[in-house]
Write a structure and sequence with these properties.
2 copies of one chain form a homodimer.
Chain A: E1 2-3, H1 5-20, H2 24-31, H3 36-45, H4 49-57, H5 61-68, H6 73-82, H7 85-94, H8 97-106, H9 109-118, H10 121-131, H11 138-141, E2 148-150, H12 155-164, H13 167-170, E3 174-178, E4 184-189, H14 190-194, H15 202-205, E5 210-211, E6 213-214, H16 219-228, E7 233-237, E8 243-248, H17 249-264, H18 280-307, H19 309-314, H20 322-345, H21 354-384, H22 387-417, H23 426-448, H24 450-454
Parallel strand pairs in A: 2-3, 6-7
Antiparallel strand pairs in A: 3-4, 7-8
Helix pairs in contact in A: 1-2, 1-3, 3-5, 5-7, 6-8, 7-9, 8-10, 16-17, 18-23, 20-22, 20-23, 21-22, 22-23
Chain lengths: 455, 455
């Protein structure tokens, strides 16, 4: 039977409805047709919050554990903390220990200690070992499930080892070959094993040049290597070359998604560290300094306007269009900024092509500036019945749109060319530049033709 | 030999240097130690643009073809158009036909026609077949390389078929089983094949419940299924269930990255369609309508300020702080917006938790509002030596920061809860709301205490 999207969706909806109606036993029966990831999605998106733990409690230890493993760590930790202690220990023991380590890391110490103490000794040791690696390292992200065989085995013996290995270990694309010190010395693919005679020594079959990551390497970089090489998994070794884990393609996908989101966060002046689950006091610490810096950046525009106080005193209505001019500049600039940051983050564009970016934004800016300036000029004239004011407002907006597009579209190229990442202040700096140009041109022009405006 | 990052980087740097010095033959020799993806990266990031085609021409037909296949389609198309016709045809013929189809789609008709005509008949047919699928469909993204065997084979015969299959086809994690009409009826993993007796009929081994995508299905949704199920590849079938291709985990990663970037683009009022390579005239069409809409959104703030013309005429310096108040509101709002859009896009947060988002942003907003308001109030007082003006400006900023944070942080939840995607206008609508609240409070307070300000 081919499982098409419609069929899977029908199952999922039925499960979600049953959970909502607190008919947990029936929900569990239907849910066996769904993957753990899909059940996790239902718990995230559709199930009422209060029904999540009761459903998991009735869903069997192993299934509940594997479903929890598919949830975001923070949410899984909440659920583990809510369940009773025995159940929570069962769940942690039933999931891959690398995931258990991530979830335990999200719990506060008082909740985590007793749960860890109750874990079977082997799981506890593995969780504790994995918790020792630094947060963004390959060691912290690796899975401890792989198949390694000694150098002196034959192909037939390796196949026997695969047969005997627990399923979680054996669900692999490669078998690694290690020496007596557990040092990684070779790798063979399942395909090569399958196509080779059983008596062939594995040392004659194995590939000896192996791309690896060290436990201390940056996990996102290791993920990038896994992906660009098209590997199904990347072995992770200690400084002494001992094989201790693997980074899978799924890990790579998760890591690269986070990295992409980080690179795009430059648009919104957001710290890479902040997520929805960051506690408010920490979010304040992360956001406040940038916004305080922004206050000082904005003083430039304030000073310029202050310098034109005399003009404003004579033609107060000039003030009405100030926010329009600065706001449009900011929005147009951030629009162009987004396109560039996105293309750079997705690796679509050569950083050397920034002159092309300048030319493109110039062309767009001239047309959009003229169009928006004309629109705004007409509106300003209509509102105030003052053609000169309309003309000045339109002209200032036109120039500001052009400047904002060019600056916004090219900033990320320059920042990356000098080796930095577009950072939290990119957006605020951009709006400062557009505020200054917009306000200067607008009030400057107004002062030049002041006599005409007052008349 | 373990290939650690440092070693690979040293190779890459040497290759980049040699290409830069136009020593193409030596560069090609060194580059054989690198993956095609890594060489592609060097051509994107490090090589001078003029050196790219000459290097590829000296690098051998197949290697050049597979390196081009790793480049973004737009850049690869540029290079193909630059090379002479014979070479370009060789390259297209040497790469996977699904990639060739993507590159041909980026070429203009006059360049593409003769190249297609020169392709070997089989490649041309495959490219043309793949080009017929809609842009974002699973059909357009699928790879035509997989191994399928008839129902009546034994395990031993399937292994023989794998041995005989061309490498590009056989580099697979699964073997598919099809009936006489090429309809997909089963799947076996390499591991199951390896662990089973050679005489076992494959129909007794195969799994019959198979997750599939239809050629017309949305490719990003299919990718999401591939990833959440932890599949190494997802079979793609026609309406008649005939197996025509597979979506690999690498395809899934690329698709999900683009989707994530799309979801985050709501922050910058950017169309999902626009990339660096969008021609200016098209970018204008995409951006102008939204910015014109933004002009009208901004009229709300303009009207409010106009209503306070009398107040402004008496205390012109009030105008100096208008852009500061609106700009801070916009930046704080977009900061909170980014955090929420990011957490939603990464699937970290339950959409049902928006009350939690409101509470969090309220807490942050009260503290940040008070802090930034106080800072700004002191600065305004220092600049104008007017305590009342400083107080008003600070109070308006404080309230505006609070409102901006709460609105920005919660908008994406409400939009997603009613089933929409955060769209291009999210940012502009947010800044409109913050402009209106900021300006009203600021000028409203100023009017109330006008006598004190004039004095």
């Amino acid at each position: 039977m081919l499982l098409q999207p419609e069929r899977m969706r029908a199952y999922a909806e039925r499960v979600a409805d049953l959970i909502g109606e607190e008919r947990y036993a029936e929900a569990a029966r239907e849910a066996t047709n769904l993957s753990h990831a899909r059940v996790a999605e239902i718990l995230m998106e559709d199930a009422p919050r209060r029904a999540v733990v009761p459903f998991l409690e009735r869903w069997g230890r192993d299934r509940a554990a594997l479903t929890l493993a598919e949830l975001p760590d923070e949410f899984a930790a909440e659920l583990v903390a809510e369940a009773d202690r025995e159940r929570a220990t069962d769940w942690l023991a039933g999931m891959p220990t690398d995931v258990a380590a991530d979830i335990v890391a999200e719990l506060d110490g008082d909740t985590a200690e007793p749960l860890l103490a109750d874990l079977p000794a082997a799981s506890r040791a593995s969780v504790q070992r994995l918790s020792r690696y630094e947060e963004d390292s390959a060691g912290a992200w690796m899975s401890p499930y792989f198949v390694a065989v000694p150098l002196d085995k034959s192909v037939g013996e390796v196949i026997e080892a695969l047969r005997a290995a627990p399923h979680r270990h054996a669900n692999t694309a490669y078998v690694y070959v290690v020496d007596e010190q557990q040092r990684l010395v070779g790798v063979v693919s399942l395909r090569e094993l399958m196509l080779s005679p059983a008596t062939l020594p594995v040392r004659r079959l194995m590939k000896r040049d192996i791309l690896v990551a060290r436990t201390g390497d940056n996990a996102a970089e290791a993920a990038d290597r896994t992906y660009t090489r098209g590997l199904k998994m990347l072995p992770v070794v200690t400084e002494a070359d001992a094989l201790v884990g693997v980074l899978t393609m799924e890990d790579a996908l998760e890591l690269l998604s986070e990295q992409l989101a980080d690179e795009l966060s430059g648009i919104g002046a957001t710290s890479r560290e902040e997520s929805f689950f960051t506690p408010p006091w920490r979010a304040i610490q992360l956001r406040l300094p940038w916004m305080a810096a922004n206050v000082f950046l904005n003083l430039a525009a304030v000073s310029i306007i202050s310098a034109f106080e005399a003009t404003l005193a004579q033609v107060a209505i000039l003030a009405a269009f100030l926010p329009m001019i600065t706001d449009m500049g900011g929005n147009v600039g951030i629009q162009a900024l987004s396109v560039s940051i996105r293309s750079i983050a997705l690796g679509e564009v050569r950083l050397r092509d920034y002159w092309q970016a300048v030319r493109k934004e110039l062309a767009i800016g001239v047309v959009n500036g003229l169009a928006l300036g004309a629109l705004f000029g007409v509106i300003a004239y209509a509102m105030e019945a003052n053609a000169l004011l309309g003309g000045i407002a339109g002209a200032a907006l036109a120039v500001n749109v052009l400047v904002a597009g060019v600056v916004g579209g090219t900033i990320p190229f320059f920042i990356r060319r000098i080796g930095l990442d577009p950072a939290m202040l990119t957006g605020p700096i951009l709006t400062t530049v557009t505020d200054i140009t917009g306000v200067s041109i607008y009030l400057g022009l107004a002062s030049l033709v002041l006599a005409g405006l007052v008349a």
